[in-house]
Specification:
- Pfam families: HEM4.
- This is Uroporphyrinogen-III synthase.
- InterPro entries: 4pyrrol_syn_uPrphyn_synt_sf, 4pyrrol_synth_uPrphyn_synth, UROS/Hem4.
- With about 250 residues, the protein is an alpha/beta fold.
- The chain has two domains: about 90 residues, no CATH class; about 120 residues, Rossmann fold, CATH 3.40.50.10090.
- About 35% of the residues lie in helices and about 25% in strands.
- The chain contains nine helices and eleven strands.
- The strands form two sheets. A six-stranded mixed sheet has the order 3-8-7-4-5-6. Strands 2-1-9-10-11 form a five-stranded parallel sheet, sandwiched between helices.
- Helix 1 runs parallel beside helix 9 and helix 7 runs parallel beside helix 8.
- The longest helix is centred in the N-terminal third of the chain and has 13 residues.
- The radius of gyration is 20 Å and the shape is elongated.
- About 25% of the residues are buried.
Length: about 250
């Protein structure tokens, strides 16, 4: 079966230089984007119930832009003035760059990882005497607490936002050749919105081991997997697959 249409379970790229647009042009396939999940902030009342004193922390671990947004949202709502001496440990350059929305970058102590959490841990290790706050969603990758516990640093998790399934009812009669997922939550959303979903000829692409596992545990076949040595990105994995099946 040739691939003509793809649905990516993420928001549309904000830049025209996205590799998805290149893929669409080169392989002559239609690519749509739709968030299967979205983030909702946890209320200050619920956060206060976690009984965590923001003033007791000397450093913050930021793993995503959502974590940045919701930390500063909560700080403002709780009238907590983040001290200038606060140290920020950002998982990637993208997160660190986004932090500039809230702080004067050159006047703060900001440490930036290469991209993955284990990379950031190497930086955290050099500051083991700090008291770290980890702003988090209700769904935290087990790798993160495991790595911090192994390191033996003093850290506290604070849930500030939650991942919620999006309403996809308008897609009920729309069919795609490939569905692309990036997290187990995406599969959860698919099943929540379409409990009678049958894969049939639909190909499923999954990024990351936990997503692949969620696909198979749901009883579906995972046709396209990334990252892999030859295809480190999802667009590369999709292109490789399309080149094979569209030749037939």
């Amino acid at each position: 079966m040739k691939v003509k249409t793809i649905l990516v379970s993420q928001p549309a790229p904000k830049t025209e230089t996205s590799p998805y647009f290149d893929l669409s042009d080169k392989q002559k396939v239609k690519i749509d984007f739709r968030s299967f999940i979205h983030v909702e902030g946890i209320s200050v009342k619920e956060i206060r119930a976690q009984k965590i004193d923001l003033s007791s922390f000397s450093a913050i671990i930021l793993t995503s832009r959502n974590a940045v947004d919701h930390f500063f949202r909560v700080a403002e709502e709780m009238r907590f003035k983040v001290p200038d001496s606060m140290k920020y440990f950002c998982q990637s350059e993208a997160v660190a760059y986004y932090l500039q929305k809230y702080v004067v970058y050159r006047k703060r102590k900001i440490y930036v990882g290469n991209r993955t959490f284990p990379d950031l841990v190497k930086l955290i290790k050099k500051h083991k005497t700090e008291n770290f706050l980890l702003p988090s969603s209700d769904k935290l990758k087990p790798l993160i607490p495991d790595e911090l516990d192994k390191l033996g640093v003093k850290w506290t998790r604070l849930d500030l936002y939650r991942t919620v399934v999006s309403d996809l009812s308008d897609l009920e009669d729309v069919f795609y050749d490939v569905l692309v997922f990036f997290s187990p939550s995406g599969i959860e959303s698919l099943l929540h919105n379409f409990p009678d979903f049958k894969q049939n000829d639909t190909r499923i692409a999954a990024f990351g081991n936990s997503t692949v596992k969620a696909v198979t545990e749901a009883g579906f076949k995972c046709d396209i997997m990334a990252p892999a040595p030859e295809t480190p990105s999802m667009t590369m994995a999709l292109e490789k697959y399309i080149k094979v099946v569209n030749k037939k």
